[in-house]
Amino acid sequence: MSADILKRNNVQVSGRGTRPLLFAHGFGCDQNMWRFVAPAFEDDYRVVLFDYVGSGKSDLRAYDPRRYSTLGGYAQDVLDVCRALGLREAVFVGHSVSGVVGMLASIREPSLFSRLVLVGPSPCYINDPPDYRGGFERADIEGLLELMERNYIGWANFLAPAVMKNPERPELTRELEESFCSTDPRVARRFAEATFLSDNRGDLPRVRVPSLIMQCSEDAIAPAEVGDYLARHLPHSTLRVLEATGHCPQMSHPEETIRVIREYLDDGHGD
Amino acid sequence: MDEMLNNAPCGFLSLADDGRVLAANATLLGWLGYEAGELVGRHFESILPPGGRIFYQTHFFPLLKLHGRAEEVYLSLRPRGGVDVPVLANAARNARDGSAVNDCVFVPMHQRRRFEDELLAAKREAEEANRVKDELIEELSTPVINVAEGVLLGPVIGSLNRERADLLTAALLRAVVERHARVVILDVTGARSMGPEVVHHLTRAAAAVRLMGAECVLTGISAGVARTLVNVGGDLSGITVRRTLADGLRHGVRAAGK
């Protein structure tokens, strides 16, 4: 069972420490997103990387459309991985939508987590006037879905089935990986909908595990006021505004990302 | 910027890793309605529609950063005024003046986009037609007919796999409840082939029907099915068996009338 999960979610464990540190990727890519950050923690932590089912090198045969049409299904992946490795009091580092996924997982099983590190999180991407500005209108998300559909029209429609049918031909998989990180257009679309159309503001007060909110400057996906909103509504949270701009500081500004995570965990927060 | 690149028949942008525009050629500025030098220092996202900004951050930039290049990516560029320009983008990471820059080339694709619109529409139509067909087949493959007062007939025609056996069971049970049936005739005269697993499922369906308080009558068992039944040790106790559908119908009408 646990071996199945490790394979299903393409779980990679490294590091020389004992405290578990789990990195969760966001929408659009896979564990490679952490390539510039994860190695820095290997001296002190047991570093765990994984792909959500449907992303990266996960087992697509385990993809259940119903389960993965809500973020709760992704939270279950996190819990499955924790259980398969016997992790307890893990530090969970989640990028973008994985911030909410980590929160949901911690609400279900608080004892599995000691700290949540949320990189560019947002509890709700859609504006809800007059009191909440997530940054997007529903039509904007439609625009994203259309863009994705058009980008998949060229190759993924033809390649993805070929990959699934030809596990003995790894070069096809490789080709796909180099094109995009997601493998199947329907999977990517459902992930996008689960990510950008969810509203998890109501879950925030239920999070008991202490958290670090890493808010980027000039982040078009998770704007500053969303970070402020989270800081106000998430119990036991600490807000850090990064100099890093954009939405992927772990790729654009890995040094600062590493430093801020480390400061939070070393500051008596990581025990 | 080199004069040839500045006026080349494609848009050119050079981006820093944080998305700031380092250089833009005249062709691109012309499309988007900006003056020379005006885009430099701004964020690339300022010329993308909101959905495109998400795509840039979640797909385009990670792809470039991780693989050093991105090819044939569809994007929409938003001009200062007017309609978005659909473009195909190629990008590559290059080192210049000691730091990494992301050079992007854009080619407008108005015509091709219309063609793709048609392709997408055709694809959606085909998917919808397929869905309707699947539904119809599902409905046709598990008909449950009211043949007399309190008597239902579930004819099994063609080959039966596990999936269909499950559907049939569900349809039968639903019908027993909805139509207050007292007898259910499962006729396998027209069944082409049934493996041990399916026979097993059918006997379970029959057991479920009995649990709902109706009598189950099995008719039209061929020699092959009989052999499979014996081989898998299918439990037929409590199930009435009649050789032909006609026998089964007579029995059913009588039993329901009691």
Low-confidence stretches of chain A: 154-167
* Biggest pleated sheet of chain B: 5 strands, antiparallel
Number of DSSP-assigned strands of chain B: 10
- What is the quaternary state of this protein? heterodimer
Helices and strands of chain A, in N-to-C order? HEEEHEHEHHHHEHEHH
The helical percent of chain A reads: 40-55%
Give me the count of strands of chain A.
7
The overall pLDDT average of chain A reads 88
Uncertain residue ranges of chain B: none
Shape estimate of chain B: rod-shaped
What is the CA-CA span between the terminal residues of chain A? 30 Å
Per DSSP, the total helix count of chain B is 8
Q: What is the radius of gyration of chain A?
A: 18 Å
What does this structure look like?
The complex is a heterodimer of chains A (271) and B (258). Chain A is an alpha/beta fold and 271 residues long. Chain A contains 10 helices and 7 strands. A 7-stranded mixed sheet of chain A has the order 1-3-2-4-5-6-7, sandwiched between helices. In chain A, helix 3 (97-108) links the parallel strand 4 and strand 5. Chain A is globular. The model of chain A is unreliable at 154-167 (pLDDT under 50). By secondary structure, chain B is α/β, with parallel strands linked by helices. In chain B, 45% of the residues lie in helices and 24% in strands. In chain B, the strands form 2 sheets. Chain B has a 5-stranded antiparallel sheet with strand order 2-1-5-4-3. Chain B has a 5-stranded mixed sheet with strand order 6-7-8-9-10, with helices on both faces. In chain B, helix 6 links the parallel strand 8 and strand 9 (215-219). In chain B, helix 5 packs parallel to helix 6 (196-211) and helix 6 packs across helix 7. The longest helix of chain B has 32 residues, at 110-141. Chain B is rod-shaped. Chains A and B meet through helix 4 of A and helix 3, strand 3 and helix 4 of B.
